[in-house]
Design brief:
Strand content: under 5%
Shape: elongated
Oligomer: single chain
Helix content: over 70%
Number of helices: 3
Length: 79
């Protein structure tokens, strides 16, 4: 596979690779792998959310507000 970058992007990639003492091709492989892993994770999380909606496992607006208020109250330092 061959990938073409703009001169500006190629310069940024080369600079980052040099700063890290690594090969630019290695950085590109890692970036693509992270992107693919993230996309897979994101799709799984969306599917979980959709399954929760289908199973009526959702909160009302008021319930979300109440949970947030409780969380914030627990994080406040004592006065």
């Amino acid at each position: 596979m061959e990938v073409h970058f703009s001169p500006d992007l190629q310069a940024k990639l080369s600079r980052l690779a040099a700063e890290q003492g690594r090969d630019s091709a290695e950085l590109v492989r890692e970036a693509v792998e992270r992107l693919l892993d993230y996309d897979s994770w994101f799709i799984r999380e969306v599917e979980k959310g959709l399954a929760q909606i289908e199973g009526s496992k959702t909160l009302t607006h008021a319930e979300v507000g109440s949970k947030l208020e409780q969380l914030i109250a627990r994080k406040q330092p004592p006065v």
